[in-house]
Task: structure prediction
Amino acid sequence: MADVFQSMILQLAGFLVPATILAILALGLNLQWGHTGLFNAGVAAFVGVGAYTFGMFATGKYSNPGVSWYHWGPDRPIDMIAAALVAMAVAGIFGLLVAAPALRLRADYLAIATLALAEIVRLVLKNERRFTGGDQSLAFIPRPFEAFVPGNIGWASDGLFIFIVAGVALGVVVVLEYVTRAPWGRDLRAIREDEEAAIALGKDAFRLKLTAFAIGCAIMGLAGALLASFNRVLVPDLFVPASTFTAYVVVILGGSGNNRGVVLGAYLFYVFGWSTQQVRGYLPPDWSLRLDFINQIVVGVLLILVILFRPEGVLPEKKYVPRSPRAE
Amino acid sequence: MPPILEVRDIVKTFGGIRAVDGCTLSVAPQTITGLIGPNGAGKSTLFNVIVGLFAAEEGEVHFDGQRIDGLPPFRIVRNGLIKTFQIPRELRNLTVLENLMVAAPPMAGERLHELLLRPGQVRREEEAVIKRAEDVLETVGLRELRDEYARNLSGGQKKLLEIARALMAKPRMMLLDEPVAGVNPTLAQRILGVIEELRASGLTFFLVEHDMDVVMKRCSWIIVMHQGRRLVEGLPEAIKADPRVIESYLGV
Result:
């Protein structure tokens, strides 16, 4: 009986935690793409930078010349909350450094610059082995509250993590809802609709774009930190540039410009992935091997269908209809 | 009274073409001043230079005693000089009300730290802006379209929206690039009526328009541009009779 309960928790966490982390990083992308119209082609890079930064700072320096296994870090690991904040800051600064020159140019250049960054980050993670651990992995990354729930009680630790990611996601949603419904968010949407018109109406478009982009990247870094902590181990292949595509599927499916829609989109995406895995057992062996590829085709087709028939997504951007102050 | 806007020796080239070629002119405050001239005379280019959307190679622009050339366009707007677009640039997926609210002068809620530190102030300012936007919509007669998406407006309504939006920025002077071109006569009269009312309340207008009836009837001073320069300026009657203007623009 207890075994059934424990395996249920493990299954639930295995579904909910990655889905919620995907929701958080998609929220970051939604601020950039959904609200401001900035095309970030390097989502994987910012998540990866956040994940590795958290891993290094929360685990501390590690070197074992005997098996030539290293990664950089402070001499002593720092507090996990501080490490997560550092991860956000580093990802945000990466965003600033890429966007500052690119945002002064035509919109396409941001896409090119971020795509290049994604490839650079992947190569650095893979090859700078004394810094990142490379393919040897960066391991032993801690989870919060391990003093209460030791890591070897897998189901309890996983179960607790559901609440941690849920709490973080809720916080991100609340903050984003507040700032995007405020005049600041209205300025971002004005830039998305017509940047030159927004400038001609007195908006400092460059500064607004830069801020929105950096905050979006910091949120992706936070998602990376959670991923690092939950996984306990990081390898560079977790952050292949193509995974950026997933974030766009989630944002477009859920509803570009609608924070709640994007969260819904992340869960829908995971439900889809989960349900196809359930089918696997019933398929003949040669088809079950093809399942993952078929999956990708189906996701692509679904995305095209959404763009054709419901471009605003499942939950469209909400119309802003305030009460008239004079009616009171 | 000293001029509110002074343009001195502006040169703006595109490749080998000198679109504005040493143009000097000035606009007196609280007037409706017209800028006319044949296509390609450089009128729209000059407007874009004045509000900072194009950078001129030579020359100076002074607004209200302050030199503004070289300032970024958003600063020029905040100084009180705004331009409407010839082809309306409505923010399509925002509502009419939001289109106006965006244009309001800088608010606390546009800065992230103030959003977090002074939420009360942000809310009060937002309410005040909604109220003012509704008043402006009333003035231009778009009140019933308050919550419509801007993309759904007709061509003439979009022209009105351009003017309403510019008004939200609390400008002292507006540059209007063909405010009634392609608008039906009834709506055109309404737009012109609004402009005259606003002038009476203290605004200055500088407008490009090809409809000579409108220009001659509504403008108190007319400047004629030809080949990137000021050709002549004067009262409407004088302009109508000037042989150089007739030759270059009005025709026989």
